[in-house]
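Batch manifest, entry 17 of 40.
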Amino acid sequence: MTVQDPNVVATAGAESAASSNPRAGQVGLTVRQAGAGATVVGVSGEIDMLTAPQLRAEVLQHLAAGTTLVLDLSGVSFLGSAGLAVLVEAAQHGKRRGAAFRVVAVARAVTRPLAATGLGEVFSVFDSVEQALGADEAR
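Output type: C-alpha cells
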C-alpha cells in the first residue's frame, strides 16, 4: 500500500495518473458568469478531505457582496463530511457578505448526505442551474 502526501507535487510520470483519478486530490471545477452578478461554479468528481480545500478556495473566492453564487454539484459522485463543511461555510460566508448562495443537487450521492444531515434546509437547493438563477426573478 502506498501513501501519497497531497502536498507533494506530482512528477511528470505521475501527473497523468493523478489527473484521471479524482481521489488523488483532483476535483473538476468550471466557472462561468451567468449574467450580471451571478457566477456558476460547476463541480465534478468526489468531494472528500483531499478535494474539499480546493473547492473551498474556489467557492469563497466567488462569494462577493451582492452577488449570486450557484454551486452546481450535478457532476459530483461523492460528497463527504469535508464537502458538507465547505457548503456550510460558504452559506455562512455568503450571508455575512450579503451574497446569495445556492446549490444544485440532483444525484443521490449529493442529495442523500444533504437530507441525512438536514443541511438541505440550511441553504437553497435546486434541481437545475436555471432554477437557481431564476430564484431572484420569482421573488
